[in-house]
Task: structure prediction
Amino acid sequence: MDGTIWLLLALIVALVALGVVVAGLRRAPRISQSSGHCPRCRTPISLRRVSILRSHLLLGEWVCPHCGTRMDKFGRSVSGTAN
Result:
């Protein structure tokens, strides 16, 4: 009885994880070339962005060279500015 409960719990966790992966894959990518401007100063964003910090590279962030606004990979402003 005790092993059955753990097996059922593991099955539920696996199904939830599979659902999250499938939902993530079905979602359309929101990266577009039309959002190619800084949200603060409207400076055009290069499509070949080079991240300065490792955390920016991992998270897909970018810093505007003109005003220092941090943006995510979708071109939305991230709280705070880089100094």
Remarks:
- The chain is about 35% helix and 10% strand.
- The first strand starts at residue 62 and ends at 63.
- The chain has a mean pLDDT of 76.
- The radius of gyration is 20 Å.
